[in-house]
Specification:
alpha+beta
Length: 304
């Protein structure tokens, strides 16, 4: 994909199948993300300071920004736990495994959620990896094209294709969830990787992440292309060390042809212009996940 187009990937005409004959998953989400400096976020007002930048750029680029859907909404609090082997075997092979808890009024609500991802810059490689879990309950597949700034300079875009599955975590009666035998049974795609190492997974860098996320409203790029947007900060539990922030907006579509070329162009122009306007806020060369993995030094290798 060129650096000047945010065009969602299109599957070719030939049907592609997983080992059991199930068709490959298709990309149904376009998510644009800009990583921000964590130290910029010291209060709720910080979120709305960034919203003013979003509104200013949207107006200049002919994009409708409606803050009303977020009016009166308080920040959401979630705890995110990344799990990997001591030598980061999953992350070094483009996998991400995390457990996520949602809090309301200071207490966890509902079941924790497991999120398993395979993330790669090549769409075909990401699609070919079957992320479906072997569980009795329901799960949700989310295959996204993630749009990010370039790693080393502002003004461009690059893509990561994130092939995700999410499902509620029910630990009762389950064998050791950190054991390679358990993980390879639930996630067959990890079979060769973990069977060879025999390693258990543990909390990455012994760090629990607290996410504070504020909805900002909706961006309307025209022709029915609507994108809820938000800004968040990730910080460590306990020390409250601000890791990174993130501005994001996401479009869900059923078919590629549902998105007009003009709306995509307007989204691209907005994404470029926002990088320039918010340059003093932006942190290049990382993602939220990468910031957690790099926390203790000696950063792992990855496809991010």
């Amino acid at each position: 994909m060129s650096n000047d187009e945010m065009t969602p990937a299109i599957a070719d005409g030939a049907e592609r199948l997983y080992a059991d004959g199930h068709p490959f998953d298709d990309v149904h989400y376009l998510e644009a993300k800009i990583i921000l400096q964590g130290l910029r976020f010291t209060s709720v007002q910080s979120f709305f300071d960034f919203a003013k930048i979003v509104a200013r750029v949207a107006k200049r680029e002919g994009v409708d920004f409606d803050p009303r859907p977020a009016r009166g909404l308080h920040p959401q609090i979630r705890e995110v736990l990344f799990l990997d082997t001591k030598d980061f075997l999953l992350y070094n092979n483009a996998f991400i495994l995390r457990r996520r808890f949602t809090y309301e009024d200071g207490f966890p609500v509902g079941d924790p959620e497991i999120v398993f991802k395979f993330r790669h810059p090549d769409m075909e490689t990401a699609a070919a990896l079957d992320v479906r879990p072997q569980i009795a309950g329901n799960y949700r597949i989310k295959f996204k094209e993630e749009i990010l700034p370039l790693k080393n300079r502002l003004g461009g875009v690059r893509s990561l294709f994130s092939h995700n599955v999410e499902f509620p975590y029910h630990p009762r009666g389950v064998a050791d969830p950190t054991a390679p035998e358990t993980l390879t049974r639930v996630f067959p795609s990890l079979g060769t990787l973990l069977e060879r190492s025999g390693e258990h997974v543990e909390l990455v860098n012994h760090t629990a992440v607290e996410e504070v996320l504020q909805q900002l409203g909706t961006l309307d790029f025209g022709k029915g292309m609507m994108a809820p947007c938000n800004v968040s900060v990730w910080r460590t539990r306990g020390e409250q060390f601000q890791l990174v922030g993130e501005f994001a907006y996401q479009v869900h579509y059923l078919r590629r042809e549902d998105l007009s070329a003009k709306a995509i162009q307007r989204s691209t122009a907005f994404f470029h212009a926002l990088q320039d306007e918010a340059k003093d806020w932006i942190l290049l060369g990382t993602t939220k996940t990468a910031a957690v993995y790099r926390l203790k030094g000696n950063p792992p290798q990855s496809h991010e």
